[in-house]
Amino acid sequence: MKKTAVISGSTRGIGFAAAKKLISDGIDIVLSARHTKELQEKIEELNRLNGGKAYGYACDFSQTHSIVNFAQTILKKHSPVSILINNVGSYIEDTVFSEDIISNAEQLFRINVLSAVQLTHLLIQDMISQPQAHIINIGSVLSENSRPNSSSYTISKHALLGFSKSLREDLKNTGVQITDILPESVNTSSWDGIDAPKDKFIQPEEIALLISDILKMDHSAVEMVKIKNRLFI
Questions:
Q1: Which domains does the chain carry?
Q2: Which tens digits make up the pLDDT trace of 144-199?
């Protein structure tokens, strides 16, 4: 039976690299993005590859109603979903002294945490109806650590890791596996225009390859992977 993977935030960076790799593995992909034009371009690019088929629907992961509509479309057109990759995320620099830390924290919590909680909630009954399914949450090195000027982001990534731990308890008697991927700096468009040693950053394609390998493991479970870049190696 052909598998279907849903990827949030999937038109660039880690999400798009994962989509390309899983398509080549023969998995059908459901993409999401806020902008319909970019989404359609990525769907067309993926469907020129051999393997699975790409589909996509607009979704603003900062809006509850948009996530509901996205999930309803998936369940109507692509059930059963066997893979969910909660990848969408946003980053803002701030500290406890920042005037806008409360609004920043609320914004990042909505996008980085609650969107994953909501999408998982809406799809989980469909996923547990299968013998095996997999949820992959894309965290960060800041899911366990901290660094200067990243207060709101660090809060959100710690919370996402906590959600994964709760999920394992909730789903331990089902066939759904939960994996957290915690990378250091990844070479994505968020670094555009910034003077940084991107050649030593983790490449999105490396994370995509890791995701592909994890999903192929039938007799073992990978709960967490921490990935370091080569800046200090």
A1: 4-227 (3.40.50.720)
A2: 999 899 999 999 999 999 999 999 999 999 999 999 999 988 877 666 665 667 77
